[in-house]
């Protein structure tokens, strides 16, 4: 058989990346990136309407541009014929949702709604639905809803229903006009196939859905707001298909727009970070994957169905069919380094970086590497965009303790990196304490490719070996692997994600191993982190919340 190819489309926070992969070997043949023209809308809408603090929107037209620009671009770059492309899978940030009209067009495309913020895509890091999230948690607690324990006992403002409720409460006309609310991931899959389906991955992690029990009852939704009584059968309709299944086939119209063949197999969509799991080959219990980029998501495959503190989603068929997978994470990782580099680094450092031919991250990494663990005298909290793990509290903010007149920028940069490593250690401890083994750790995403110091610090702080996926486009690769499974072995793909992982996934030979002297020092520093963590995250939580309110 001729060589066959699959396409993975990774819709990240800032851009969409398309990857063309040879199915038999997993070889990455061509890639193309389309930056979102409108980026993240966190200050104003395209027309200038101002947005409040904690808002983060996107323009759905940018996603369609990714498909129509970057899919033909990879075929052209690789000189591959559409006849040899057998499948396509997409991954997306989540919960990234949008309201749609009866034709499944985004409401913000309509003139009538183009100046209404609630008609746009609410990006995963839109945190303005915190009051609504708290309300869902409270009602679920009072009613003793069993589903709550699968989400660590707290509903996050990042998820689908708090975002929908915010629309309903603030602009009920948009809620009324919406024929459907969908995850952007499922909307695009449905746009490609013409079918209305949702993914067990997106609904399981972000919309309270469970394979055995389905969604919570309509009584629960009514107790939150009577106007939500029929939401499941109306604006949330759509069968849930399991991850690893085929969502449908590419329509003629979309085939023309993408330069692919009508009938190409389209996979059920998956959350971006989660796609890194098969791409690292981590498809068995005990294997944990950290998808490290703007944020970090920690995914652990298990066969144990039990609640774990700080886990913000435990879903059967969530990532790997047949297994339960846990997800938890840290909201700002690369984002907190970006904050420092963009907002706080002095000009002399920027100049030094320019003269050395490095970007500011690279220069600070080089300088921070000269320090021994603890030598900065700084301890930071990794809550630059709230906490999504053990505390599940988006109203917490960051902190750095230990500044003095001699503190240098590279020390702050190192302290920020260390804070994110401590946050990860706390997550691992939470799994282990809950009785779920973490046997192997894999890293995927942009950060492992860019910052060796960061990876070594993670190995030292966690005292674990870290394996790194051998792909710079792991999420897109994972999405492509699901595309290969949707196509099936007869077409030149695979019959299961396990087969696909065996042939298409790889880790680098070089791993990051803990350095014993560093491990010892970090054990002590971690105990300081825990003190500060519990002080600001629990004891003085009200103070932190008060500070956040002042900023509004
Ligand atoms: N050398 C570096 N060291 C640490 N962080 C970096 C470096 N270069 C870029 N970053 C951070 O990486 C993040 C982007 O990660 P990436 O994986 O490319 O994107 P995404 O998570 O959106 O898919 C940004 O937040 C940026 O601040
Ligand atoms: O919440 C998520 C997964 O559950 C987001 O999709 C994820 O955090 C976005 O991350 P990034 O921009 O780093 O890819």
Automatic annotation (TrEMBL):
Enzyme class: transferase
Classification via SUPFAM superfamilies: Actin-like ATPase domain
A biological process term (GO) from this entry: L-arabinose catabolic process to D-xylulose 5-phosphate
Pathway membership: Carbohydrate degradation; L-arabinose degradation via L-ribulose; D-xylulose 5-phosphate from L-arabinose (bacterial route): step 2/3
UniProt-listed Pfam families: FGGY_C, FGGY_N
Domain Carbohydrate kinase FGGY N-terminal residues, every copy: 5-276
Gene3D superfamilies documented for this protein: 3.30.420.40
Keyword ATP-binding among record annotations: yes
Single GO molecular function: D-ribulokinase activity
Similarity remark: Belongs to the ribulokinase family.
Protein name: Ribulokinase
Organism of this sequence: Fictibacillus solisalsi
Lineage: Bacteria, Bacillati, Bacillota, Bacilli, Bacillales
């Amino acid at each position: 058989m001729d060589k066959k190819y699959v396409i993975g489309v990774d819709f990240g926070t800032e851009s969409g990346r398309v990857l063309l992969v040879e199915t038999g070997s997993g070889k990455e043949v061509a890639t193309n990136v389309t930056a979102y023209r409108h980026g993240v809308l966190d200050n104003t809408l395209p027309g200038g309407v101002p947005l409040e603090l904690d808002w983060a929107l996107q323009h759905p037209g940018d996603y369609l541009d990714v498909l129509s620009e970057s899919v033909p671009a990879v075929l052209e770059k690789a000189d591959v014929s559409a006849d040899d492309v057998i499948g396509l899978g997409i991954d997306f940030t989540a919960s990234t949702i949008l309201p749609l009209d009866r034709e499944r067009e985004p409401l913000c495309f309509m003139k009538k709604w183009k100046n209404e913020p609630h008609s746009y895509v609410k990006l995963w890091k839109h945190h303005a639905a915190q009051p609504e999230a708290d309300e869902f948690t409270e009602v679920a607690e009072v009613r003793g809803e069993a589903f709550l324990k699968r989400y660590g006992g707290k509903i996050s403002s990042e998820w689908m229903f708090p975002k929908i409720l915010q629309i309903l409460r603030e602009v009920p006309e948009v809620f009324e006009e919406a024929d459907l609310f969908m995850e952007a991931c499922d909307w695009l899959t449905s746009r490609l196939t013409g079918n209305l389906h949702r993914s067990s991955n997106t609904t399981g992690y972000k919309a309270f859905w469970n394979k055995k029990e389905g969604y919570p009852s309509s009584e629960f939704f009514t107790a939150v707001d009577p106007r939500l009584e029929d939401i499941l059968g109306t604006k949330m309709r759509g069968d849930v298909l399991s991850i690893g299944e085929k969502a449908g086939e590419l329509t003629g119209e979309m085939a023309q727009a993408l330069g692919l063949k009508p009938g190409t197999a389209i996979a059920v969509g998956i959350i971006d970070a989660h796609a890194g799991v098969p791409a690292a080959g981590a498809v068995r219990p005990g294997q944990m994957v950290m998808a490290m980029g703007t944020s970090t998501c920690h995914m652990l495959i298990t066969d144990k169905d039990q609640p774990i503190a700080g886990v913000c989603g435990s879903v059967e068929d969530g990532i790997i069919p047949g297994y339960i997978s846990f997800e938890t994470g840290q909201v700002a990782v690369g984002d907190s380094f970006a904050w420092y580099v963009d907002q706080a680094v002095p000009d002399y450092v920027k100049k030094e970086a320019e003269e050395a031919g490095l970007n500011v991250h690279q220069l600070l990494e080089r300088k921070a590497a000269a320090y021994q663990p603890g030598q900065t005298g700084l301890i930071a909290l990794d809550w630059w965009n709230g906490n999504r793990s053990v505390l599940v509290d988006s109203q917490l903010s960051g902190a750095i303790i230990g500044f003095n007149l001699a503190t240098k920028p590279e020390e702050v940069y190192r302290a920020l990196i260390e804070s994110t490593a401590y946050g990860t250690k706390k997550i691992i401890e939470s799994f282990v304490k809950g009785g779920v083994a973490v046997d192997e750790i894999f890293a995927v995403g942009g950060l492992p490719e860019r910052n060796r110091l960061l990876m070594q610090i993670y190995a030292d702080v966690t005292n674990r070996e870290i394996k790194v996926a051998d792909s710079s486009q792991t999420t897109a690769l994972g999405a492509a692997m699901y595309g290969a499974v949707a196509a099936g072995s007869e077409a030149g793909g695979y019959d299961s994600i396990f087969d696909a992982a065996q042939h298409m996934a790889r880790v680098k030979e070089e791993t990051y191993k803990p350095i014993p002297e560093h491990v010892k020092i970090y054990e002590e520093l971690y105990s300081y982190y825990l003190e500060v963590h519990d002080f600001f995250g629990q004891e003085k939580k009200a103070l932190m919340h008060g500070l956040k309110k002042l900023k509004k």
